[in-house]
């Protein structure tokens, strides 16, 4: 492929302020183009230097060998718009050892499709968004966001050798390397300091036990007080096997609510299948996310839709009230006794609905009741284990 981006020194000068504002080191912006259909800002760039050190012999290489492709690299949002850097790939040939290699740009993460600027922005520890939210915000793939966060975590782990992290609240969570395909990895976090501690290659109980007994260098679990997990018994059993009663197991709030949301989805789908008319089926399908919305976030129109549901489908409406009650239960500063009493009352009211999907959730709640109520034992549960 021939070189496709041509530019003059005037083009570089015109876009110099933008290049500097973006903090580009090895690339110069020479042209802007707005893709109306995709709503993407394309910034065409050229290499600032066009030379590189040969990775084989260490000599300076200046000879262009070829232009094999054009790259489109995700960058941070610019004026709120999704932005791509577009440039020709340059391959150089070393005059000393004749090795052919690709010109490297310090602005781009090696072997990745995003800039270091975007990676820094997404992996900023002050950010509170989850992977899905970041994916929507930056309009990049879920797996790309995961890659950015995992690379940042690995870099932090490597820096801890000389300054051990004393962990008091441990988070245990899983991620799928291939969404929907299993192949899980286990991510271990410090919930107080909001940092990733380590990433394990699988979610097997034996793997976790081995790590808990001998964590990676720079991680001190001697003062561990609580471990937050999803509702997977292997994690609970692994912590108990290693620490006994010394460490309290806390069922992660997000996963508890996620299980309830799934029960509500199943109940809605059942009602949809049993609907008498096609119009009723469409209305129930359109309620999917409304049924899960917190009361304080409902618009006037959405409130009216829910009130109509109270007459048309009283069981679904009752489910929204139970969902809201459980959310408020988490938000209230309970003692353990109060929390247990309120949760038992919630379970009684839920069982009275005689809703099959909800009954399965109630069974999960009973099986994990101690760990769910332990939410109110942690030092700062509201801040660290929020939905």
Question: Would you kindly provide a written description of the structure presented here, covering whatever features stand out?
Answer:
The protein has 387 residues and is α/β, with parallel strands linked by helices. It has three domains: 9-115, no CATH class; 166-251, Nucleotidyltransferase, domain 5; 254-384, no CATH class. It has 15 helices and 16 strands. It has helices at residues 9-14, 16-22, 116-122, 131-138, 142-158, 205-213, 233-243, 253-273, 278-285, 300-312, 314-331, 336-352, 356-367, 369-373, 381-384; strands at residues 27-35, 40-47, 52-53, 60-61, 63-66, 70-78, 81-88, 91-93, 100-102, 165-166, 169-176, 184-190, 195-200, 219-220, 226-229, 248-251. The strands form five sheets. A five-stranded mixed sheet has the order 13-12-11-15-16. A four-stranded mixed sheet has the order 1-2-7-6. A three-stranded antiparallel sheet has the order 5-8-9, with no helix packed on it. A hairpin with a 6-residue loop joins strand 3 (52-53) and strand 4 (60-61). Helix 8 runs antiparallel to helix 9 (278-285) and helix 11 runs antiparallel to helix 12 (336-352). The two termini are 50 Å apart.
Describe the structure in brief.
The chain has 387 residues and is of the alpha/beta class. 42% of the residues lie in helices and 21% in strands.
Give descriptors for this structure:
42% helix; Nucleotidyltransferase, domain 5; 4-stranded mixed sheet; globular; alpha/beta; disordered C terminus; 16 strands; 21% strand; 387 residues
């Amino acid at each position: 492929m021939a070189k496709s981006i041509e530019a003059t020194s005037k083009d570089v000068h015109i876009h110099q302020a933008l290049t500097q504002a973006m903090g580009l080191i090895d690339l110069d912006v020479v042209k802007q183009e707005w893709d109306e259909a995709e709503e993407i800002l394309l910034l065409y760039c050229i290499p600032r230097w066009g030379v590189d050190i040969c990775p084989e012999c260490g000599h300076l290489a200046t000879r262009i060998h070829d232009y094999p492709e054009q790259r489109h690299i995700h960058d941070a949002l610019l004026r709120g718009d999704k932005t791509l850097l577009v440039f020709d790939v340059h391959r150089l040939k070393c005059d000393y050892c004749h090795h052919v290699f690709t010109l490297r740009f310090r602005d781009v993460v090696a072997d990745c499709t995003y800039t270091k600027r975007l990676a820094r922005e997404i992996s900023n520890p002050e950010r509170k968004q989850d992977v899905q939210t970041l994916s929507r915000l930056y309009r990049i793939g879920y797996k790309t966001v995961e890659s950015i966060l995992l690379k940042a975590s690995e870099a932090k782990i490597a820096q801890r050798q000389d300054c051990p992290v004393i962990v008091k609240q441990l988070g245990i969570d899983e991620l799928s390397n291939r969404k929907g395909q299993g192949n899980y990895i286990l991510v271990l976090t410090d919930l107080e300091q909001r940092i990733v501690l380590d990433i394990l290659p699988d979610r097997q109980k034996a793997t976790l036990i081995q790590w808990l007994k001998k964590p990676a260098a720079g991680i001190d679990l001697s003062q561990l007080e609580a471990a937050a997990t999803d509702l997977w018994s292997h994690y609970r059993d692994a912590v108990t096997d290693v620490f006994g009663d010394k460490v309290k197991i806390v069922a992660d709030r997000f996963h508890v609510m996620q299980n309830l949301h799934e029960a509500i989805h199943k109940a809605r789908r059942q009602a949809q299948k049993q609907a008498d008319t096609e119009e009723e089926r469409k209305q129930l399908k359109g309620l999917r996310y409304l049924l899960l919305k917190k009361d304080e976030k409902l618009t006037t129109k959405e409130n009216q839709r829910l009130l109509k549901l109270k007459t048309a489908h009283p069981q679904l409406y009752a489910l929204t009230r139970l969902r809201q009650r459980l959310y408020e239960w988490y938000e209230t500063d309970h003692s353990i006794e109060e929390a247990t009493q309120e949760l038992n009352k919630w379970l009684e009211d839920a069982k009275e609905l005689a809703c099959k999907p909800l009954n399965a959730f109630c069974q999960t709640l009973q099986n994990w009741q101690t760990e769910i109520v332990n939410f109110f034992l942690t030092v700062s549960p509201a801040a660290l284990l929020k939905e």
